[in-house]
Amino acid sequence: MQRIIASLVSSGFVTDKSSGAFNASYAEFTNGARSAIRGLEGLSSYLRNAALTLDDVDAQLAARLSR
Length: 67
Description:
Layout: H1 2-12, H2 18-65
């Protein structure tokens, strides 16, 4: 997608100011989206580990209560 935008603002959508502003806006969007994805991946990892830990705690409690 980035190549398409670069091509667009260099040959298809070329203006004095707005094509450059569009390209900068797209770059900012791309950086924000990548950052959001990294954050979601971190959150996913945390939740996965929390679920595994809680599952282990539940199993340990059940084992001790059934003695």
